[in-house]
UniProtKB/TrEMBL annotation:
<protein>
    <recommendedName>
        <fullName>Phosphoribosylaminoimidazole-succinocarboxamide synthase</fullName>
        <ecNumber>6.3.2.6</ecNumber>
    </recommendedName>
</protein>
<keyword id="KW-0547">Nucleotide-binding</keyword>
<comment type="pathway">
    <text>Purine metabolism; IMP biosynthesis via de novo pathway; 5-amino-1-(5-phospho-D-ribosyl)imidazole-4-carboxamide from 5-amino-1-(5-phospho-D-ribosyl)imidazole-4-carboxylate: step 1/2.</text>
</comment>
<feature type="domain" description="SAICAR synthetase/ADE2 N-terminal">
    <location>
        <begin position="7"/>
        <end position="236"/>
    </location>
</feature>
<keyword id="KW-0436">Ligase</keyword>
<dbReference type="GO" id="GO:0004639">
    <property type="term" value="F:phosphoribosylaminoimidazolesuccinocarboxamide synthase activity"/>
</dbReference>
<dbReference type="InterPro" id="IPR001636">
    <property type="entry name" value="SAICAR_synth"/>
</dbReference>
<dbReference type="InterPro" id="IPR018236">
    <property type="entry name" value="SAICAR_synthetase_CS"/>
</dbReference>
<keyword id="KW-0658">Purine biosynthesis</keyword>
<dbReference type="InterPro" id="IPR028923">
    <property type="entry name" value="SAICAR_synt/ADE2_N"/>
</dbReference>
<comment type="similarity">
    <text>Belongs to the SAICAR synthetase family.</text>
</comment>
<dbReference type="InterPro" id="IPR033934">
    <property type="entry name" value="SAICAR_synt_PurC"/>
</dbReference>
<dbReference type="Pfam" id="PF01259">
    <property type="entry name" value="SAICAR_synt"/>
</dbReference>
<keyword id="KW-0067">ATP-binding</keyword>
<dbReference type="InterPro" id="IPR050089">
    <property type="entry name" value="SAICAR_synthetase"/>
</dbReference>
Length: 253
């Protein structure tokens, strides 16, 4: 029997376990789906498999173009080996088109193209609902300094360029996405890298021709099968696991 692994952290969609080597973690993708700060929950069988494969695909692509990230390799259908990082307590949001909260705040129709990609930040705190915060707050509270923020914006825009191109090539419009950033040390030198995951859980994705939603808004807004939406993204990108079909959602009260 394999030894029980030490759990380091459990979030809404993933579990982190102690890795096999110092400075590594094993990231396990759960089938749980949540929305509205976990007020709405469901178990979507196979979702973790799809997100593991998709995040591997995107992180590997970022590595290939020189964007540093925490991904080392996929271990199996639900787990990947990642580099251990100190997470900056921010969600970094990049918006290309109006949707969700920015549409409500500014009275913009969903799908309105923005003048340029907009980068904004929310403070990672579930109890507070991950509130948006300006750079002044981030610097004042010591979550990051000005050089960090400059580097974060640079990373976020490079990720945006890469993802926008990849999705456009398969007929998908990248509306917006969020990433997390981690600190790693090489001796005394600290650098920032992309962490967490990149998947339909963390992106808004619309079909270019029909504007059909292919992301977690399907679950948030009861627009159909989340599995079908995620599977369509994976199919178009050529990363659909052969055993991730015919899977049904189970709602949790």
């Amino acid at each position: 029997m394999a030894p029980r692994r030490k759990k380091i952290y459990e979030g809404k969609a993933k579990v982190l376990y102690e890795g096999p080597e110092p400075g590594t973690l094993v990231q396990y993708f759960k089938d749980d789906a949540t929305a509205f700060n976990a007020q709405k929950k469901a178990t979507i069988e196979g979702k973790g498999v799809l997100n593991n494969r998709l995040s591997e695909y995107f992180m590997t692509g970022l590595t290939n173009i020189g964007v540093p990230n925490h991904f080392i390799r996929r271990l199996n259908m639900r787990e990947q080996l990642i580099r251990q990082v100190e997470i900056v307590p921010l969600e970094v949001i990049v918006r290309n088109f109006a949707a969700g909260s920015i549409s409500k705040r500014l009275g913009l129709d969903e799908g309105t193209p923005l003048p340029r990609p907009i980068v904004e930040y929310s403070y990672k705190n579930d109890a507070l609902g991950d509130p948006l915060v300006p750079e002044e707050y981030i610097i004042a509270f010591g979550w990051a300094n000005q050089q960090d923020l400059d580097d974060i914006v640079s990373l976020a825009l490079r990720v945006n360029d890469f993802l926008s191109g990849v999705f456009y090539g398969v007929g998908i419009k990248l509306i917006d996405f969020k990433i997390e950033i981690g600190r790693v040390w090489d001796g005394d030198f600290m650098r920032l890298i992309v962490a967490d995951e990149i998947s339909p859980d963390s992106c808004r994705l619309w079909d270019i021709k029909t504007n059909q939603k292919l992301d977690k808004d399907v679950f948030r807004r009861d627009l159909g099968s989340l599995t079908d939406a995620y599977s369509e993204v994976a199919r178009r990108l050529g990363v659909l696991p052969t055993n991730a079909t015919n899977i049904k959602p189970t709602l949790i009260n």
